[in-house]
Design goal:
139 residues, alpha/beta, Rossmann fold, five-stranded parallel β-sheet, 5 strands, 35% helix
Length: 139
Amino acid sequence: MGWYNKRLSKSIWVFHVSASPCNNCDIEILDLLTPRYDVERFGIKLVGSVRHADVLLVSGVANNKVAPKVKYLYEQAPKPCFVVGVGTCPASGCCFKKSYNVPGKVEETIPINLYIPGCPPKPEAMIEGVVKLVEVLNG
């Protein structure tokens, strides 16, 4: 696992999993790719296939329809794969937590390694969260 952590410190490939979000977090995630924040200068790259991902970035709540698909995506990701919950929805369910359509937190569907709180979290918070994940892995 040591070689994998060293590789993560140089380049992190992230796949965005949209699990029934309200799209506020999604807009902030896309803002990370703009020239203002330019996360690619840190070696963080958004990829289009879960099979290439080192990290899954999950936004939204996993409702009854989406939860099996989120689990299937997690199973397809190469291991070890780290999961980051973006926003209040993956952490607590937010205003949807007592809904008939939400079976529980995202953590009950897939394991989450790191939460980035906020509704929506700012791009700076997301960058800081992924950097802290890398520090923990390399520590």
